[in-house]
Amino acid sequence: MIRLAVGAAVLALPAAAMAKDKDEPVIIPARYVPLEEIIVIGGGSLKPTDANAIQSLAIVRDLEPGLGTRIENRLRDEGGLAQFRRSDGRSAHPTSQGVTLRGLGGNASSRALITLDGVPQADPFGGWVAWSAYDAIRLGGIIVARGGGSGVDGPGALAGTIGLYSEITEGSEASAAYGSRDSVDLSASAGTRLGNGWLAVDGRYGRSDGFIPVAESQRGAADRAAPYEQGGLGARLRFDAGDHGRIEASLRGFSDRRDRGIDFTTSKVDGVDASLRFLHQPGAGVQWLALAYLQLREFDSGFASVAADRDGVAPALRQRVPATGLGARVELRPAVGGAFPLRLGVDWRRTAGRTQEDYMFAGLVPGRHRIAGGSSDTVGLFAEWTSGDAHEGLLWTASGRIDRWWLGAGYRFETQIAGPVISDAHFAAREGWEASGRAGLRWTAGPVAIRAAVYRGWRLPTLNELYRPFRVGPDATAANALLRPERLWGGEAGVDLGLGSAHIGFTIFRNRLENAIANVTLGTGPGNFPGVGFVAAGATYSQRQNLDAIDSAGVEFSADAPLGPLRLRASYALTDARVDASGAASVLDGLRPAQVAKHSGSVSLSSRGDGPFGGFATLRYVGRQNEDDLGLQQLDDALTLEAGLSWRVLDAVSIEARGENLFNALVATAISSAGIVERATPRTLWVGARLSF
C-alpha cells in the first residue's frame, strides 16, 4: 500500500528526497521529513525537524478510522493534555470541548492552537473544537508540540500546538462495527490517481442510543439515555502545476446531533471547511506557499431546567450560533548556502458570529429574545531561523511574530418577544499589537540530547467570551466585552535519551499566563444579576473576568520502547497550577484552576509485528480536579482501561474487537451546584470488520 502525505507545506525537502519520476508518489526517508511541513507515511513513522526537536513533542500514530475510535480520546494518552470535560464528542456538550496543556485550563476555549494541515481548527465563535469534524477526513498522524510561542504556526499557541495531518491512501479501505447500546460505526476511504494528481474521498457515519449521563443513584423520571448521530464526507485533490509547483484543494462537511439525556437539550452542529493552497518548491532559489481557507459553522442547542427531584423538566434556553472563519497565509523560504533555514511569512484570520437566543420560558413558550456577537481580525508577520542540520553538537532556533488585532464593534440586544426592548448594548471597537516568539537550543552527544527553550504567546478573547452569557443548569455566567488578551511567558528544559529504537524524554517547565480568562463566581441566588437576569436559590452567578495570572510548573515524562513482539509507550505529567488573583476575584488566589488535574498519564502496550494477530491495551489515569473556580465541587480521579484485538483473516480482511472503559469506572465529568454528578462513557464493547484493497 502506498501512502502519500497531502495538505501540508512542503517547502524544504532535500534533493535526495524528491522523486526521480514526477509520475511516482514521493516516499521520503523519515530522517528527511520536516514535521511542520509534511508527514511521511511511506516509512510508517513521523519524525520532527531539527527545529521542532528542541520542543517537547509527542507523535500520535495508530489513527485508523472506524470501530468506534475517537481522536479526542486518543489524545488523552498524552500526559498533561486536557480537554475541558472528561467526556468525548458523543456525550459532551459541543461548547465544552476546548483543549489545553500544562495546567493552563479552567476555560472551555482552547489555549492550545489546533491545526489541520496548517489551517486553524478552533470554532470561529467559541474557540472550542468540533472533534466529530475529523470523521470527514483520513488522518495520518498528530503532532503535539508542548509550550507556547510558536511564531510560524499563528497566534493562540499559549499551551502548545496540536497539528493534525491528512493523508491519501492509494486503494480503498472500509470498516463496519457494532457496539453496546445499539451503536453503529461505519467508515470508508478511497484514494486514486487522477491525471497527474491524486484524489481522496473519505466518509464516516456513527450513531448510538447512548447512555444515561447522570450517576445512577441520582437519576429521576426526567433522566434518559443521550443518543447521538454523527457523520461527515470529505474530498481532497492534489495535482502538479509546472515543474516545481503543486496545487492542493480540500472540501469537507460534517453533521453532529446529540443531546444531554433530558428533554429540550438537543444540540446540532453543522460545518463546511474548504482550503486551497499552491506550493512552489524548486531545489534552489525561493520556495513559497500560498494558502486560503474558509470555515462555516452552524451551532444550535437547547438547555433545560430540571426539578430538584429530577422528575420534571422544562425548556430554559434555545440558541442558534452561526459563525464564519476566514484566513490566508503566504510563506517564503529563500535558499541560504544550499539549505532553507529561514521562514518568512504573513497570515490573516477573521472570525465573525452571533448568538441568537430565546429564553425566559413560560411552559413551552419563550418570553425573551437575545442577539449578541461581533467580529475579530488578526494580521501577523512571522519569521523563523534554524541554525542547521545538527545531529551532533549544538543546534539553535529562533522564531517570532508581531500581530495587529482588531475587535469590531460588539453588541447585545435583548427584548421581550412581541414587547418592549429590555437592553440595547453596543461595545466600542478595540485594537492593539501583540508580540510572541520562541528561542531554543539543543546539544546532542551520541544518544543524549539536552534542550532548553523560552517563549511568549498570546490569545485574543473569543466572541463567545466577550459577548455571550450562558447557563449550565441553574448556574448563570455573564459575558464581559472588556476582556483583555491573554499573555503567556514560559520556559522549559529537558533531556532525551535514544537507545536504538527506544526513547526516553524528561522535561521541566514553568509558565505564567497573565490576564487569564476565567469564570469568576460573584454571588448566589435568588436574585437578579447583571447580564443574566434571574438566578434561582442556591445557584451561582459568575462573570468572565481576567485574572491576574495562572502560574503553572511541572514535569513531563515519556517513554517509547520495543519489548519483544510488543511496544511499550508511557506518558506522564505532574502539574502544579495556581491562580494569582486580586480584587473581585481575590477569593480565588492560591487555588488550583478549575478542570486542571495535578497528575495525568497513560501506559500502553501494542503489538508491532506483521503477523495475522494484533492487539493493544491502554491504561489512562487522570487525577482529582476542581469542577468550579472556588474548589467547592471536586471530580474524583479515574483509572480506565481500553483494549482491542485484531485477526487478519485474509490479506484484505480483518476482524477486530475493542472495549472502552473496561473497568466500567465512574468517570465524573461534571458536578452541578446541586451536587448532581454527570459521567463520561461507561463500558462500551465493539466488534467489527475492516476491508483493505
UniProtKB/TrEMBL annotation:
<dbReference type="InterPro" id="IPR012910">
    <property type="entry name" value="Plug_dom"/>
</dbReference>
<keyword id="KW-0675">Receptor</keyword>
<dbReference type="InterPro" id="IPR037066">
    <property type="entry name" value="Plug_dom_sf"/>
</dbReference>
<dbReference type="InterPro" id="IPR036942">
    <property type="entry name" value="Beta-barrel_TonB_sf"/>
</dbReference>
<dbReference type="InterPro" id="IPR000531">
    <property type="entry name" value="Beta-barrel_TonB"/>
</dbReference>
<dbReference type="GO" id="GO:0015344">
    <property type="term" value="F:siderophore uptake transmembrane transporter activity"/>
</dbReference>
<dbReference type="GO" id="GO:0044718">
    <property type="term" value="P:siderophore transmembrane transport"/>
</dbReference>
<dbReference type="Pfam" id="PF00593">
    <property type="entry name" value="TonB_dep_Rec_b-barrel"/>
</dbReference>
<feature type="domain" description="TonB-dependent receptor plug">
    <location>
        <begin position="89"/>
        <end position="161"/>
    </location>
</feature>
<dbReference type="GO" id="GO:0009279">
    <property type="term" value="C:cell outer membrane"/>
</dbReference>
<keyword id="KW-0798">TonB box</keyword>
<keyword id="KW-0812">Transmembrane</keyword>
<keyword id="KW-0998">Cell outer membrane</keyword>
<keyword id="KW-0813">Transport</keyword>
<feature type="domain" description="TonB-dependent receptor-like beta-barrel">
    <location>
        <begin position="243"/>
        <end position="662"/>
    </location>
</feature>
<feature type="signal peptide">
    <location>
        <begin position="1"/>
        <end position="19"/>
    </location>
</feature>
<protein>
    <submittedName>
        <fullName>Outer membrane cobalamin receptor protein</fullName>
    </submittedName>
</protein>
<keyword id="KW-0732">Signal</keyword>
<dbReference type="InterPro" id="IPR039426">
    <property type="entry name" value="TonB-dep_rcpt-like"/>
</dbReference>
<keyword id="KW-0472">Membrane</keyword>
<keyword id="KW-1134">Transmembrane beta strand</keyword>
<comment type="similarity">
    <text>Belongs to the TonB-dependent receptor family.</text>
</comment>
<dbReference type="Pfam" id="PF07715">
    <property type="entry name" value="Plug"/>
</dbReference>
